[in-house]
Amino acid sequence: MTLLPLRASEHLHEVKYEIRGALARRAEQLEREGHDVIKLNIGNPGAFGFRMPSSMRVAIVENLHQADPYSHQKGIFPAREAVVMQQQNRGVMDVTADDVFIGNGVSELIMLAMRALLNPGDEVLVPSPDYPLWTASVVIHGAKAVHYPCRPERGFVPDPAEVERLITDRTRALVVINPNNPSGAVYPREVLAALAGIAERRHLVLCADEIYDEMLYDGAEFVPLATLAKQALCLTFSGLSKVYRACGLRVGWLVFSGEREHARDYLHAIDLLASLRLCSNVPGQFAVQTALGGHQSIFELTRPGGRLHATRAVLLDAIGKSRWLSLAPPAGAMYGFICVHADRFPGGTEAFDDQAFALDLLERKHVLVAPGSSFNVPYRDHFRVTLLPDAEQMADVCGRIEALLDEYALPPS
Questions:
Q1: pLDDT under 70 in the chain at which residues?
Q2: Tell me, what DSSP letter sits at residue 147?
Q3: Taking the model in full, what pTM does it have?
Q4: In this structure, CATH architecture of domain 67-293
Q5: Residues of the chain with CATH 3.90.1150.10
Q6: Residue 13 confidence (pLDDT)
Q7: Crossing angle, helix 105-117 and helix 132-139, to 10 degrees?
Q8: Which CATH superfamily is domain 10-51+300-409 in?
Q9: Sign of torsion, CA 354 37 240 310?
Q10: Rounded CA gap, 11 and 57, in Å?
Q11: Distance separating alpha carbons of residues 62 and 209, to the nearest angstrom
């Protein structure tokens, strides 16, 4: 009997997540062949020796006896109340535990939020570059991701006037990723206020991805978008994965604030979808209260002398000395979004391709990076690295990248 090809759902035809795509699969093959690969493609702190605060681990262990049953679909009350306290400490006063949903990481909550909101043909304004899950979460539901530019020459900070010009009668939501992944940009208060004003005037849902909220360098200021959006429905996303180095717990939260009376049907839809998946991982939820209420060890990593700060300094120094590369210094998050000056190589900009470069770097130097085009940008001369290696390893990585680009510049023998 001949079986017909079993084809994937058409909903997935335009969905991309190249951070764990073909390059990552090739890296796994190289490792099976005995090669050591330095994986800078994904922000996974635990893979580089970072650990969650020990108090979080203790909180999970001491509450395991309560973790057998399902929790409420929104999450356990102590975790939700801890998120409320954090929001209120930041000046977002109009939230209660009923406005908080705990999810299996921010990724699940983004999908729930888009699934409850979108119909085929709707549009969502998404930054370019973006964390590609945002674009995927829009197109997987039959809607259109309209990318607003965060231009390299502006330090990857969006121009609110450009954003507003992209709004149509099908636009439903505006996504803001701050601090930004992949660029590390931290948006000024006046830009955030302008974006919040656009959402209020144009009746858009405002989605604030703030998973890197306390991961800041050299005095950068993080301004919670919810503090500026009083007359729009604001969805704030954050979690334990990055600031608290606990990716494997899969604990994120979604907070609703701002104008909500007009959105009761939408909020009920979120509750329905949360109920359909029963609840999020219960043991990990017991770490939330301790994480948010305890000592914030992230500051020890990002201030001068801290590991993330030191690695960032090595990267900035190496890029500053490079003949081929440049970088807008990341003010937040854990990435560098690096530009290759392709016009300095034979063939120029037209001949350079970020995907081919990333594969070449992997095959010849055993370094895995994420090509810039993975982040929904129209140019092909950037790539992203994480700041997670220690300073010595980052110096080694930069040397390998520079050596490969030196080889590109040599005339063929």
A1: 411-413
A2: E
A3: 0.94
A4: 3-Layer(aba) Sandwich (3.40)
A5: 10-51+300-409
A6: 78
A7: 30
A8: Aspartate Aminotransferase, domain 1 (3.90.1150.10)
A9: negative
A10: 39
A11: 31
